[in-house]
Amino acid sequence: xxxxxxxxxxxxxxxxxxxxxxxxRAGARTPARLADAPWHRRVEPVAADVTDPDQIAAAxxxxxxxxxxxxxxxxxxxxxxxRAGARTxAAAARRAGxxxxxxxxxxxxxxxxxxxxxxxxxxxxRILVDSGVPTVVxxxxxxxxxxxxxxEMLRYLTERLPVMVTPRWVHTRVQPIAIxxxxxxxxxxxxxxxxxxxxxFDIGGPEVLTxxxxxxxxxxxxxxxxxxxxxxxxLTPWLSAQWVNLVTPVPHSIAVPLVASLINEVRxxxxxxxxxxxxxxxxxxxYDQAVALALARTREAAVPPSWSRAATSATSATSATSTTSAGPAGPAGPAxxxSEPLPTDPAWxxxxxxxxxxxxxxxxxAGQLWRAIESVSGEHGWWRVDxxxxxxxxxxxxxxxxRPRFRLPGHAWLELSVAPGAPGAPGAPGAPGAPGAxxxxxxxxxxxxxxxxxxLVGHLCWKSLAPLHSAALGRMARGITxxxxxxxxxxxxxxxxxxxxxxxxQPSxxxxxxxxxxxQSSxxxxxxxxSAGQPSxxxxxxx
Length: 543
Prior knowledge:
By secondary structure, the chain is α/β, with parallel strands linked by helices. It has a domain at about 355-420 and about 440-485: 2-Layer Sandwich (Alpha-D-Glucose-1,6-Bisphosphate, Chain A, domain 4). Helix content is about 30%, strand content about 15%. It has helices at about 10-20, 55-60, 80-95, 115-130, 150-160, 180-190, 210-220, 235-245, 250-260, 285-300, 365-375, 455-465, 465-485, and strands at about 1-5, 25-30, 45, 65-70, 100-105, 135-140, 145, 165, 175, 175-180, 200, 210, 230, 355-360, 390-395, 400-405, 410-420, 445-455.
């Protein structure tokens, strides 16, 4: 039983347990949110509000092991809420006959005054250990992985501030641990821990670093310029939290208790867990590798990690700007690293990806529209071949993804796709007054530009040029649909859908040469061909 299955750790723990052959019951205060998880069809979803004794009793019935991964950090009274929830769950677990509780808490330094956040995590651990059910409390410091609140705060501060005014806590020492190592200890504890052991254990990565060292090394892994720090000893934790809230999208309710905890040195005091659960055979993940894994999803030439985390800007003739979560929706999808973003992660996590989304209906059929789209990557298309290259092949007729060759302060993608026209939509079959009503099939043109900014310059680049690229992208969308709707030149039959080459018996156009009727001059490079008597495609549609 995983209570807190929609949280950062819980959503990554569930598939690890499933892959190890366990039957999993996934509990959440709002079970409907589990539908966003890629593994939701492989578990038994249940309501598990820790403030409701009846719900918790029903959720724990017949369960052997309970993973308790709940905390209310986003609530103002999180200390009281977490205390009450732990007591409710401890009593229910004892009555249900649960044989093992596993709780993920935080490292508590000895001899220091704890922040409310760390003190609360320690209190919850004590309540569970005293429940009468054998309990293991795994205590971790900063968890490194996309979606972890502490990691996201570090990510945004480092990426957005080339020069930082910092308080004393940047020199506090911590022992970060990669999320995959946390999951390793969580899963093996259930399998290997003797029944009589009931206590806490510290877990951590192989290095002890200061927050400033973590920021510098993050910048190096991410390929950012060297960061500069100006220490300000009088900057209090409360003022620091306001500054973090201003610079990052991490919610104020989470930033305040997290920043207050940064004054405490959190590193492992013991290695006792190794007596029961050996370290991974591959070794513990070092900090640089953990950061690289967290950034890997957007380092690959792939669709950025999560459109739901994107700050967006676009206009469309037929639809408003839209965002959606990416990633496989079920077990049949490709395996994902736990360091990568998941659709269940908070909207503010996973880094920033700007997006411009447009959708236009057209009277052209899917084949005509696809041929117009394909022209953008040809040497006689609108974009010079030295400016754009194909990213990862083409699905005919369906989607084309491109990326710029010229340098940008970030990673950019252009995705062009075709969809069938919806009945009754403008330009679609049956639309009043549209050619589609006379039998034309109609289709939908979809265009999406995404930009993952690289440092502060990347954010400023997108935002400052937003009016210009918004106008250019709008002209691009209209130009492609206009081109698709034009009839073929006189005497040339339409090309069948899915075929972009000339019909058999007609010569191909040599590479680098624009097509033109015999006896007419070629169209200059960078400009599409046009039929006699028709205006040429407007210029200026480079991207």
